[in-house]
């Protein structure tokens, strides 16, 4: 294990080969490697030792005074700090002269130096001031995972909407890609052709992809974590993919209320800047064993958490809480939603148009999921964004589009 030794000379590192080493063995190592005689050493895990001025002051620090006590029994382990007070003088070796060639014949850069010590701490402020969910879109998602899936398997989607200059995110529709959900895992079977249609619709609506949403299962509610390590990997991957600093990850879960019943609960987070950096630079272990603690994210190399070097990071360190609100957006969510248990057909379009005859035509098609079905019959470069723009501005739909839509509906 590696210990950090702090004395009046500064911080030095000491490698202890024996995991069962005692206080006496540690003192011997300090003597042989740091040239501080054993008889001059006073050791402690408390930093106030270095403020001691008199022998009476030193006598108060007895936590590391029993010579045969194993270090592990005293809470000293890999990465621990041990403070050393000593009398007399010693010659402290100066750092070796820096060689641009480094130890492997290549130039040492500032990035190389930074990579040796990545500090992971909590990020207090998100880049997203607030996330507001369209009530109908949020309700359609939670109703499906609650009533149909019974929170037995995971479900997810991409959130689309707008971002204000102040950093407020408004979510106006949720696209649910093809996927497979289990109790612990969520796999998106992404369809590039379908996603291009989604993006074309979003452009016409004046919106963009702003976040990820997924549900946790009932079994996960019994676990001691906010997001599992697999969920962190999925969330940071999509966050990093977009480059949008206001990107939001939303979680839908069941929580037991005061009466013993279950309430559907929404939470929103951003992945911290350090989390994004670690992902982009390839620090995360992406292969997770079945026996791995889901609360811990594993690193390929040591990072600094507090004062310890570790490869196991509590995933909560990567989460920045975002405030939640709701609003009534410009779109309805009454049309069947894509990629669920029942395929969406043109028969659904006919039924929807028949049911909404009393509304202006633009209102009848003001539903993202309906537009996604129609987009399969339209030109993606011109017709899809043009029709979506009519919806966005609530303008009269040109007769040509009306005829085409009614023709698609009647073909069922």
From TrEMBL:
Pfam families: NPL4, UN_NPL4. Coiled coil: none annotated. GO terms for cellular component: nucleus. Residues 130-271 form the MPN domain. GO terms for molecular function: ubiquitin binding; ubiquitin protein ligase binding. This is MPN domain-containing protein. PANTHER family: NUCLEAR PROTEIN LOCALIZATION 4 (PTHR12710), NUCLEAR PROTEIN LOCALIZATION PROTEIN 4 HOMOLOG (PTHR12710:SF0). The keyword Phosphoprotein applies. Keywords: Phosphoprotein, Ubl conjugation pathway.
